[in-house]
Amino acid sequence: MSGHSKWSTIKHKKGKADVARGKIFSKLIRELTIAARAGGGDPNANPRLRTVIDSAREANMPMDNIDRAIKKGTGELPGVTYEETMYEGYGPAGVAIMIRVLTDNKNRTTAEMRHIFEKYNGSMGAANSVAWQFIPKGIIAIAKDKATEDTVMEIALDAGADDVTTETDGYTVTAPPDTFEAVKKAFKEKGVVWESAELARVAQNTVKLDEKDASKVLKLVDMFEEHDDVQQVFSNSDISAEIMEKLAKAEE
After folding, report:
1. Spelled out in words, what is the top-level CATH class assigned to the domain 134-203?
2. What is the pLDDT of residues 53-76, one digit of tens each?
3. Disulfide: which of 49, 100, 178, 239 matches 232 by Cβ 3.0-4.6 Å?
4. Count of alpha carbons within 13 angstroms of residue 106, beta-carbon side
């Protein structure tokens, strides 16, 4: 999700990481397959594929799994054909939500996305109903014990990043999609390890939520993220780190 503290979001998701390990692999395999199909199986010539391979390695996916997924995308091995699409709508408190999916049955997925919206007090909209509120960005999260603020700032801006935000637990680096790979490479060459790096949709304006509405929005987002076809969920919610921590503890 975008809009609130990147670090609070990371903590929120890490609590479920072990349980969702198999699901994470499944989602990454779809990403690898469609990235290879779209731009070829050579990561040196396919930045999107290179980004997904990095994510798969960070998730400790075996190289055999990565290679098979890529070969399915290039047609060297038989596999399922996935279609990439976005769903848009509004959740509780008027929060705008975008869901990126990879599906082998769009009719089924559309019905299921609409059902989740309606079940959790939201409504699914038409294409571009909320997309105008978001802009594509690369987002890199770096823990404070990995580098100093000056180091992160210097590397990021020299490599073409837009901005660096310092938070309690770390730094959030944002970059245009066309310089995202260069920024990642710059950190890697300097030995600075990131917690996460992804291409995302960032809200231009956010909706600040109290604890009650934050709980509802997070529940809706969780339901989307647990769906097998969903790869990423973005929102324009603004949830404070304190509320995120409190809600995370309530789930323990």
Report:
1. alpha beta
2. 988 998 899 999 999 999 999 999
3. 100
4. 8
